[in-house]
Specification:
CATH class of the largest domain: Alpha Beta
CATH superfamily of the largest domain: DHBP synthase
CATH topology of the largest domain: DHBP synthase
Helix content: 25-40%
Order of helices and strands: EHEEHEHHEEHEHEEEHEEHEEHEHE
Oligomer: single chain
Strand content: 15-25%
Strand order of the largest sheet: 2-3-7-4-6-5-9-10-11
Distance between the termini: 50 Å
Bound molecules: threonylcarbamoyladenylate, magnesium ion
CATH architecture of the largest domain: Alpha-Beta Complex
Length: 334
């Protein structure tokens, strides 16, 4: 199958809607990462998504909706808190797990009684959902295990010849996947951190963070979010997360332990005698460049990547969560 990349326009959206209504799957832009979308109510379409990604069938998909009201069509109970959070953070990077209605097939929910919902902040994708009239099930549009795609080119690399169409909406602004939350007796629990941070949610309710966000899962702990148990975000190179508060110490360590195929994620090259991969100066910039730099490392055939562990505050927690998985939980403490 030939994979076409079309800029987001009214015409390309028409084409995407045509494919989606036929049960085909297409890649769509969102503010977080690109999604691989299909009709979330169709077993036929959802199976195509799992197949194209090589994704385990027990890892559920997020349903993308175009407005808060759609929650009442697809979710069994909508807690008052869910409504308040949706009104504050949608359209945006917040995914809420709710009890699903039976119209949502178990193939979409990975066999669970719950389903994940998000209203993405991208005008083209919102328009597309409205044109389709059904929720778009969309995981990140990467092959399972690889870093999520933050531009159409990344999607093409992973999905070329597997899907008919990629809608190119430019670079994703956020660059990390959405925050995934579930509701508890007195608030919410974060299963995957993203741009809607712990601090932002705390203005509304009690917030706890699932153990799997920062720690490796031991055999006894069941991941609340199935996605957390799989190896993720991994480039081919070995990634090392270096914990240290002192920049000079970090630079010294990198210089002593690098060879010609070693790369460092760093905002600037000051004193570093290893290859540099672009990384931001602020936590937001780190988030937006992380996945593209990990992909670039593969293009450059890097064999080792060093990166300084970020602070776990704000969006830093999300960056830390992706990095620690990319590093397969290897931390070097200086
Ligand atoms: O920003 C995003 O969320 C992107 C864009 C495309 O919207 N999508 C995305 O989807 O990252 P995906 O499939 O790569 O990640 C969805 C995560 C997985 O970790 C999955 O296990 C979890 O959400 N999830 C989905 N439904 C769930 C459920 N019912 N219960 C627990 N976790 C769920
Ligand atoms: Mg993903």
């Amino acid at each position: 199958m030939k994979t076409e990349i079309l800029n987001a326009t009214d015409d390309s959206l028409e084409k995407a809607a045509w494919y989606l209504k036929k049960g085909e799957i297409v890649a769509i832009p969102t503010e977080t990462v690109y999604g691989l979308a299909g009709n979330g109510l169709s077993v036929y379409s959802v199976k195509k998504i799992f197949e194209a990604k090589g994704r385990p069938a027990d890892n559920p998909l997020i349903l993308h909706i175009a407005g808060v009201n759609s929650l009442y069509e697809y979710a069994e109970d909508v807690p008052e808190l869910a409504l308040r959070l949706a009104n504050r953070f949608w359209a945006g990077s917040l995914t809420m797990i709710l009890k699903k209605k039976s119209i949502i097939p178990y193939e979409t929910s990975g066999g669970l009684e719950t389903a994940a919902f998000r209203m993405p902040n991208n005008k083209w994708t919102l328009e597309l959902i409205k044109k389709c009239g059904f929720p778009l099930a969309a995981p990140s549009a990467n092959l399972s295990g690889l870093p999520s795609p933050t531009c159409a080119e990344h999607v093409y690399r992973d999905m070329n010849s597997k899907i008919p169409l990629i809608i190119d909406g430019g670079q994703c602004k956020c660059g990390l996947e959405s925050t995934v939350i579930t509701f508890t007796d007195n608030g919410v629990k974060i299963l995957r951190p993203g741009a809607v941070t712990v601090e932002m949610l705390r203005e509304f309710c009690n917030v706890s963070v699932d153990k799997a966000v920062t720690d490796g899962l031991d055999g006894n702990y069941k991941a609340l979010s199935p996605g957390m148990k799989y190896k993720h975000y991994s480039p081919k190179a070995e990634v090392f997360l270096v914990e240290c508060d002192d920049d000079d110490k970090f630079i010294d360590f990198v210089n002593k332990n690098s060879d010609k195929n070693t790369y460092v994620l760093a905002e600037k090259s000051d004193g570093i005698r290893a290859n540099i991969l672009p990384y931001g100066e602020t936590a937001d910039a780190e988030a937006s460049q992380l996945f593209s730099s990990l992909r670039k490392a593969d293009d450059l055939v890097a064999d080792k990547i060093y990166v300084k562990a970020p602070s776990k505050e704000g969006i830093g927690l999300a960056v830390y969560n992706r990095l620690i998985r990319a590093a397969a939980f290897k931390i070097i403490k200086l």
